[in-house]
UniProtKB/TrEMBL annotation:
It catalyses: Hydrolyzes free adenine bases from 7,8-dihydro-8-oxoguanine:adenine mismatched double-stranded DNA, leaving an apurinic site. One of its GO terms (molecular function) is purine-specific mismatch base pair DNA N-glycosylase activity. Its cofactor is [4Fe-4S] cluster. The keyword DNA damage applies. The gene is mutY. The lineage of its organism: Bacteria, Pseudomonadati, Pseudomonadota, Alphaproteobacteria, Hyphomicrobiales. SMART domains: ENDO3c. This is Adenine DNA glycosylase. Residues 46-195 form the HhH-GPD domain. NCBIfam families: mutY.
DNA sequence: CACTCGTGGGA
DNA sequence: TTCCCAAGAGT
């Protein structure tokens, strides 16, 4: 069995590359056209643990609104958070803004072209530094993401489960990464992982590396890469209060800057705890005389826990009361708030109780 | 090193 | 329905 030949993968990529908004298509032999580093960086941040389908719309919105790095550096963080709402992993949005500021302040507004300097920027880890160096600057960086882990684990039939196998995966990835067209090679690995060497039902018959793959003809290709067993997801409980005014506006507040959903908007509520302690009456702000508890709680599953929220709704007794660190969001404004998906679920559940329908 | 940190879609 | 997962980073 021969070592996987980069030329075979690059030839496959030349005819099968996905067309993506942040990408420059593979060029004819001898030509090299590099993409805008700003767009490469933005796409890489958005794509961290996030599907291409989910990213596309956000990428279009961001690049339309902030066409250049300088535009993003000049933006308000809260505007960036509002634009990011729904995409998840919100620390990415904060680091995105911090990174834009740092590149302007410390690098004259141009991204550094090497992994070492890229790695020092907020939100850019080992993978993203290598990806930007390779894709935006065509540097021969070893790019190891989830796709590469899967492809390499299969090519070399690595039986040790993740994450323990990572050092060996990197070693093998280094072995196959060429000095020629490293940017296209990195993107080719991702396209291969996304369209051929997929997690569940890989299409080995269409793979340019089938002949050099040690598991292509196994019955259990999809069992690679092997992974350590996952721990069970606990359930947390909380109570939230959807307070309306007669004009249909709703009371919101801002979550703490750090931690889960950091800096995002929410309706007021209790802490989320393991016990379903319903201290609702004690917590409820004294701005509504009458409260209604929804029959059905709102449920939402995060990466590491499941959340069950009891939802109480009420209409404020007096118009435009000022409440410290809260604000009233009008019907028109709610859509543009930095509300994470779980809070949009809460508002949707309370919608039948909103005045002035 | 192990844990935190979102979401929507597909099987 | 339930589970898994998708171009990881920060601590």
């Amino acid at each position: 069995m021969s070592t996987p030949d980069p030329k075979l993968l690059l030839a496959w990529y030349d005819s099968h590359a996905r067309t993506l908004p942040w990408r420059v298509p593979p060029q004819p032999a001898g030509r090299r056209v590099l993409p805008d580093p700003y767009r490469v960086w933005l796409s890489e941040i958005m794509l961290q643990q996030t599907t291409v389908a989910a990213v596309k719309g956000y990428f279009d919105d961001f690049t339309r609104r902030w066409p250049s790095l300088a535009d993003l550096a000049a933006a308000d963080l809260d505007d960036v958070l509002r634009a990011w709402a729904g995409l998840g992993y919100y620390s990415r949005a904060r680091n995105l803004k911090a990174c834009a500021n740092a590149v302007v302040a410390d690098h004259g507004g141009a991204f550094p072209d090497n992994e070492t300097e890229l790695r020092k920027l907020p939100g850019i880890g080992a993978y993203t530094a290598a990806a930007i160096a390779a894709i935006a600057f065509d540097r021969p960086a070893v790019v190891v993401d989830g796709n590469v882990e899967r492809v390499v684990s299969r090519l070399f039939r690595l039986t040790e489960p993740l994450p323990g196998s990572r050092p060996l995966i990197r070693e093998k990835a280094t072995l196959v990464t060429p000095n020629h067209r490293p940017g296209d090679f990195a993107q080719a690995m991702m396209d291969l992982g996304a369209t051929i060497c997929t997690p569940r039902k890989p299409v080995c018959g269409l793979c340019p590396w089938e002949k050099s793959c040690l598991v292509a003809h196994d019955a259990d290709v999809a069992q690679f890469p092997r992974k350590a067993p996952k721990t069970a997801r606990p359930t947390r409980h909380g109570t939230v209060f959807v307070v309306f005014q007669a004009d249909g506006s709703v009371l919101l507040r801002k979550r703490p800057e750090k931690g889960l959903l950091g800096g995002m908007a929410e309706v007021p509520g209790t802490e989320w705890t393991a016990q379903s302690a319903d201290h609702a009456e004690k917590f409820a702000p004294f701005i509504c005389t009458k409260w209604t508890k929804l029959n059905r709680p709102v449920e939402h599953t995060f990466t590491h826990f499941h959340l069950v929220l009891s939802v109480w709704t009420g209409v404020a007794d007096h118009a435009n009361q000022t409440i410290d660190k809260h604000w009233w969001s009008s019907r028109e404004a709610v859509a543009g708030e930095a509300l994470p998906t779980v809070m949009r679920k809460v508002l949707k559940a309370a919608e039948p109780h909103r005045p002035g329908l």
